[in-house]
């Protein structure tokens, strides 16, 4: 029963790790115009690889534990140790890139806003509208930032994109003469917060499942120690008996 429980824990950990990595990829796709450093995806790539490897390790460990193969269990422990070290690396990288988020967003967000084209929106323009609606924000620091964009100067209608309008209002035109209809908070701080939250998901997932790896290694070590202390014990096979 304990062997089955350990196996199920490892498989569940593998699935959740892959889910967390996939979530980071999907969410990053919504904010990638504000965050140019693709190396921030390295923790997500590693955690998906770890999740896939953990699934295979779970199968190997289950078979080795059931058969109580000393060689198989030793291999299982060594591989789990390597995975544990990898997850520690993920945590370190997560903290490094989490600290870089603010500088990256600050470096790129103004360029993205200046490239906005509301009449024929490209990918960057769609990203701005998505972020403003999703995070309920407007402009970089506030809605007045739109006055310095090329799009605002070209339209000459003294209004901001409709994505700045509060969701509850149906008659909002984005006019700066009615600032109470617009989201008052800027997007930069909220984008930084969102991206840092994504990094924290990776960090917490890696920490939580590193604990599961320790449990797996502990169970395997217990079985190995039992084998070492009882040399007369032989594996029971079909048609066989104990020595």
From TrEMBL:
Subcellular localization(s) per the UniProt record: Membrane
UniProt keyword annotations, A-Z: Glycoprotein, Membrane, Transmembrane, Transmembrane helix
Signal peptide per UniProt: none
Cited InterPro entries: Tetraspanin/Peripherin (IPR018499), Tetraspanin_CS (IPR018503), Tetraspanin_EC2_sf (IPR008952)
Membrane topology: Multi-pass membrane protein
Regions that span the bilayer: 7-26, 38-61, 73-97, 198-225
Main location per the UniProt record: membrane
GO cellular component: plasma membrane
Family: Belongs to the tetraspanin (TM4SF) family.
Subunit structure: Interacts with claudin-11/CLDN11 and integrins.
Function: Regulates the proliferation and migration of oligodendrocytes, a process essential for normal myelination and repair.
PANTHER family given in the database record: TETRASPANIN, TETRASPANIN-3
Name under which the protein is recorded: Tetraspanin-3
UniProt organism field: Buceros rhinoceros silvestris
Taxonomy of the source species: Eukaryota, Metazoa, Chordata, Craniata, Vertebrata
């Amino acid at each position: 029963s304990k062997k089955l429980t350990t196996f199920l824990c490892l498989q569940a950990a593998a699935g959740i790790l892959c889910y967390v990595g996939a979530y980071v990829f999907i969410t990053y796709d919504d904010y990638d115009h504000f965050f140019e450093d693709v190396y921030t995806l390295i923790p997500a790539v590693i955690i998906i690889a770890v999740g896939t490897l953990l699934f295979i390790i779970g199968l190997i460990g289950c078979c080795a534990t059931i058969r109580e193969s000393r060689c198989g269990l030793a291999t299982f422990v060594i591989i789990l140790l390597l995975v544990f070290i990898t997850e520690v690396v993920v945590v370190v990288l997560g903290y490094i890139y989490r600290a870089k988020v603010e500088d990256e967003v600050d470096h790129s967000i103004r360029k993205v806003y200046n490239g906005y084209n509301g009449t024929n929106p490209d990918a960057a323009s769609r990203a701005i509208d998505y972020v403003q609606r999703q995070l309920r924000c407007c402009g970089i620091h506030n809605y007045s930032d739109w006055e310095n964009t090329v799009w605002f100067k070209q339209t000459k209608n003294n209004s901001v994109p409709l994505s700045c309008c509060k969701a509850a209002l149906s008659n909002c035109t984005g006019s700066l003469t009615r600032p109470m209809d617009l989201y008052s908070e800027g997007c930069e701080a909220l984008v930084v917060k969102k991206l840092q939250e994504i990094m924290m998901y990776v960090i917490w997932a890696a920490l939580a499942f590193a604990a599961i790896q320790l449990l797996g290694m502990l169970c395997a070590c217990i079985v190995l120690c039992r084998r070492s202390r009882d040399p007369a014990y032989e594996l029971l096979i079909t048609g066989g008996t104990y020595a």
